[in-house]
Amino acid sequence: MKVVHFEDAETKNFEGAGATGVVGRLLIGQADGAPNFAMRLFELAEGGATPRHTHAWEHEVFVHAGKGAVWRNGEWIDVAPGTAVFVPGGEEHQFCNTGSEPLRFVCLVPRGSPEL
Amino acid sequence: MKVVHFEDAETKNFEGAGATGVVGRLLIGQADGAPNFAMRLFELAEGGATPRHTHAWEHEVFVHAGKGAVWRNGEWIDVAPGTAVFVPGGEEHQFCNTGSEPLRFVCLVPRGSPEL
Fold this sequence. Notes:
The structure is a homodimer.
Chain A: E1 2-5, E2 12-16, E3 19-28, E4 37-49, E5 59-65, E6 68-72, E7 75-79, E8 83-87, E9 95-97, E10 103-110
Antiparallel strand pairs in A: 2-3, 3-4, 4-10, 5-8, 5-10, 6-7, 6-9
């Protein structure tokens, strides 16, 4: 059993290709023995956003902290701590921070997609 | 795309069979089109605990709020908001609330295991 606080996980910065102010951390992945899906935590700085993109695999997201929005069918939908978001494979999506504190959410992806 | 706050999801109470003060909510599952894994949120009241048990499938857990502990190899390990826990299939585990506020965590399971 692995028990880790996200602050103790290695960080990876994402800038460019549509990403602004995004830090990712792999919390649970294949190296831990996870056979089916991986858990990452993303932190978006004030003004930060993930790329607006589409890919074949799904996301299962849970917002932990901060204020944000998700792009769905041409409009921004507010998300807050405690909001879950299911992004089916093939659907365009983007997350942005709409507050002044970091936006933090976990985002899980199936095996076979990039872990981070 | 599904966007839902956990407080708006249907609740299921778990009492007995080792569970005390446990409320579960299915946030993302097969009915939403999730093809590979399901997201549930569990809320443990003050003094609450999940059963100490073992099963074939894994858990990927992220602690959202409250104070708690997880049973690992014969001892309790503290968890806090921001802690991730990977419970491999076949490993005994139990979660308990060690604080006075609700302990809330998401717990993801692979397709083929009970969704809630």
